[in-house]
Amino acid sequence: MNYFLAIDLGTQSIRAAIVDQNGLVSSVSQIQQDVNSPFPGWAQQKPQVWWDLTKRAILEVIQKSKVNINSIKGVSTCGQMHGPVGVNKDGEITTDWTQIWCDKRCENICELIKKEYNESELAIITGNPITTGWAGAKVRWIKENQPEIYDKTRWFLVPKDFINYQLTGVAATDPSEASGTYLYDFNTDAYNGYMAKILDIDINKFAPISNSHDVIGNVKEEISKKIGIPVDIPVIAGGGDFIVSLLGLGLVGEGTAVDMTGTSTLFVVHKDKPIVHPLVQNLKHVIEGWIPFTILDTGGLSMKWCKDFLSSIGKEEISYEQMINMARNTPIGCEGLMFYPYMLGERRQENTMARGCFFGLTLNHKAGHLARSVMEGVSLALSKDVQNFRNLGVEIKQVYCVGGATRNKLLYQIKGDVTQLPQILTDEPEASLRGCGLLAAFGLGLIEDITEVASIKNPNNVIINPNKAVAKQYQKLLVEFKRMYEHLTGYWS
Fold first, then answer.
1. Contact residues for 225 (Cβ-Cβ < 8 A; gap 6+)
2. pTM of whole model > 0.90?
């Protein structure tokens, strides 16, 4: 059996794993990290910390694994998307703090582009609306606000490409990440010089594009010795974490959607081409096709915030189980309390700087009402996006669910009731790492049909079906949620 070292550079943790050529994850090491937010709308992390923690995670997983290291045939990495790490011509980091995917400090740049250009015409090139998430807009912010950093930067590399660069010394990216720069032309599958002029940034500072399964280089000898892996083994281009997770989950065809709730909530489908619409974003899949998606930046983080908030008012920390029980014992609709779940803003252009809020508080509301309203608010926001996909002609029969939030069965019962769709909770806990392994195996010619191997379904998946009676109640609440949503859209500027 051949094995691969898989790396997943997430927002809240960094993981390394040993994965075999069939996508079976045998050993995992995980190290937690935090997000720094010095100002409203800012979210940043240190690339040097990413690299230090990655090396540590690799050393730990090599030590705990029983696999002979000589059977490790390659390295494949995925990571949180869009955050531009600057490195100079000598490979030194120029962006000590890097804007991550949910950072919104470049909103004024997005607004300026929308004023100066017809966004619909630009979408015909990029397949996307202009948002603060795209790496190109973040680089434009660096150019305007940190010109000395911009000038000395040779490459702007997203997180997983930065790790690959540290491993190989080669600057490279893949289509899943390139399509998230707002420089990518979905008609030609290449960077577009006209978009670079619109963003007023140097297109040559962005890494060349390889297929996600391509070998981009080999691990440098000095790095191999430090992290305990074979010398000179190939490194695969890899992809954005949530796109690679979709491969690991087997989303390789139409008709099924995926709900990925970790820090954020991503709701995604698979299509041959982008869905060009102001409320839909599109990224290239790591295999054939495109991934149209919507995102709630704090879909999972809202739950953590609620737990931390409830813990902060007592002497003992509240567990997730206690919070869920509070919510379970609270009536549907929380007696008129609704949660507006945009605590880090929204990617919709009119609502980028939004904040979260509780709407309809009365003297009768207790902690359990807040806990349930957070779960309902996240679910109602998701249902609004599902309706939009349906209006655009996307057929959705079921939803595969993955991420740390799947441990909260109540949340997914609410999601099923609100969306009126079966929720399939996969017990594939390491979809991103599995996807990394499959990309490596395919890229090195060890499997012939990546879609066939990826689409093998797990018989242990848990299916949560919607409660039809409850669904009717939630349809009424969805009307009220949308009314609240429309009133608050654009309130924060």
1. 231
2. no
Tell me the C-alpha distance between 301 and 261, whole Å: 9
Provide the residue type at 165 as one letter.
Answer: Y
Question: Amino acid identity, residue 103?
Answer: D
Residue ranges of domains in the chain, CATH in brackets? 3-249 (3.30.420.40)
Distance of CA 315 to the CA centre of its chain: 34
- Rounded to 5°, the CA angle 419-268-206 comes to 155
CA distance 479 to 15: 41
Cα atoms in the 13 Å half-sphere on the side-chain side of 285? 24
pLDDT of the chain, 493 residues: tens digit per residue? 899 999 999 998 999 999 998 888 989 999 999 999 999 889 999 999 999 999 999 999 999 998 999 999 999 999 999 999 999 999 999 999 999 999 999 999 999 999 999 999 999 999 999 999 999 999 999 999 999 999 999 999 999 999 999 999 999 999 999 999 999 999 999 999 999 999 999 999 999 999 999 999 999 999 999 999 999 999 999 999 989 988 988 776 677 789 989 888 989 998 989 999 988 999 999 998 999 999 898 999 999 999 999 999 877 899 999 999 999 999 999 999 999 999 988 877 778 889 999 999 999 999 999 999 999 999 999 999 999 999 999 989 889 898 778 889 999 999 999 999 999 998 676 889 999 999 999 999 999 888 888 776 667 789 999 998 999 999 999 999 999 999 999 898 7
Element (H, E) at 292: strand 290-296
Q: Is 288 exposed, middle or buried (0-12, 13-18, 19+ CB in 10 A)?
A: exposed
CA pair distance 289, 472, nearest whole angstrom: 36
Contacts of 453 (CB under 8 A, 6+ apart): 22, 23, 438, 441, 447
Residues 6, 77: Cα–Cα separation, whole Å = 6
